[in-house]
Amino acid sequence: MEIQYFEFLKHLIRFNRYVYLDHNATTNVSSNVQRRMNQVLKDHYGNPSSLYGIGRKSAEIMEQARQQVANAIHANPDEIYFTSCATESNNAILKSVSSHFFPGKKKIISTPIEHPSALSTLKHLETLGIIVEYCAVDRQGRVLLNELEKQMDEQTFLVCCMVANNETGVIQDIAAITKIARRHDLLVLTDCVQALGKIPVNVHEWGVHYASFSAHKLYGPKGIGALYIKQSSPFTPFLHGGHQESGVRAGTESIHNIAGFGAACQEVDKLLADAERLQTLKSRMIQQLKEIKPDCVINSPQSEAECLPNTLNITFPSVGNAGLMAMLDYRGIAVSAGSACSTGEDMPSHVLKSIGLSDQAARETIRISLGHSTSARDIQYVTQVVQDYMEGRTPYVNMITPAQLNETILFDEQTYILDVRPPDDRKRFKGLPNSHEVSPLSIEKYLDQLPRDKEILVYCPGGGLSYMISYYLKAKGFKHVSNLRGGLDGWRKRRNDLYQKYAGQNLTVLEQAQ
Ligand code: PLP
């Protein structure tokens, strides 16, 4: 009896645990940052452009934050401009520098593993006549410097290369890249979003001309970024309006966010001092995961100097990441995947493909990113849950493959089809016949309407989100839950005949409980 009670307690403790291991996606706002932001929100509403007292006070707060950001990245405060996010910073530089040089010079060299905020902007610039060349990277994602130099010619004006990659954690030798670029009179933009707070950032020592930053990756608020522009580097504003940010970026400044960014930057030294601890936790986790699944493949560079201390990208052959992530979520653990199924089409990550992973391997890959609050117990818990999953000791969600989903299942009275797709996917594609549409963001508001005696078949665009919701329903006591593998997208491709014949028939939109 006592043992049973103890097991029950252990079960409760396990299920009440929440372990956040997705710090490369975003971080929680630290208490110092919160305090500072609350104070500014409460007391300092003045417009920093106003000349009277409360306006001057806001301007002073902004300049203090600018100094704090500059200190953290080793720049001068007059080289820092606040933006709304790093996506804006990357857009601003790529577009502005292109318009400065084009059509005299036409070429930008970048890497295939940049963040979409750079890659999508480069794609857009290509439509305007800019030539973008992507330099080769090795299996670890490191830029091949000799190859990079060979691509530089008199048409080139800019090199765009991130310091540290968000998915694998690979760190580039940005000082060496800048040195080569400078030999050819080229400008350099570097995305430092993942680097700041994880490894030392020194824009002056590196010699780069432009750098982008984002507060929410280092325990600051969302919606605020920064741009470093080395003195006398070309820049044309792309937001026109008032004279804010020395005319570089118009729009009334978000004082509380700027103050929060400054406060986050004040904690950078503390974060850097924690790197060794995170590295030790990561190494321990790698060792344990290798014991659990000896054929796992580490995609992050294994050399400490070449990888962010908090980031682990790992492939578990023949274990789909959607199922693993859903199981981890069920047990309170947040990690991210090597494919972006939330966008609908379950696309394998461009970063993983660039370093040589197959589509299949990318779909068997997860990213674990540790943070300041990660403890040894968290790592112990995560490895235990992974082991339970690998060894089949976890609740089971029935899987329906696209080939299996035929007319018998679609029209079976005992099957209740639950559509958890986001609204934009519903606009693009008709749903399965007899679907019950709910908002995936607030699934808990529909629980009373879902039948407990039927088989609930959950589907989303790509099969990842529905997996998570299936596990959630299991946790809420629904015994018969199935998930459509590959989602509607997979089924449409596999059974287009049935999609054409039945999709969109007899749909029900469920009302949320208040
Ligand atoms: N660059 C990198 C490397 C990132 O990881 C991110 C965010 O994930 C961004 C840019 C975009 O940052 P923001 O969310 O501030 O637009």
Short description:
The chain has 514 residues and is of the alpha/beta class.
Describe the structure.
Helices cover about 40% and strands about 15% of the residues. The protein is of the alpha/beta class. The strands form 5 sheets. Strands 2-8-7-6-5-3-4 form a 7-stranded mixed sheet, sandwiched between helices. Helix 19 (about 485-495) packs across helix 20 (about 495-500). The protein is globular and about 70 Å long. The two termini are about 40 Å apart. Bound molecules: pyridoxal-5'-phosphate.
Write down the oligomeric state. Answer: single chain
Percent of residues in β-strands: 5-15%
State Rg: 25 Å
Distance linking N and C termini:
41 Å
Number of strands: 21
Give unreliable regions as ranges.
Answer: none
Helix content: 25-40%
Query: What's the pLDDT, averaged over the residues?
Result: 94
Shape designation: globular
| Class based on secondary structure composition and strand pairing | alpha/beta
For the largest beta sheet, what order do the strands appear in spatially?
2-8-7-6-5-3-4
Tally of separate helices: 20
Q: What composes the largest sheet?
A: 7 strands, mixed
The ligands found in this model are: pyridoxal-5'-phosphate
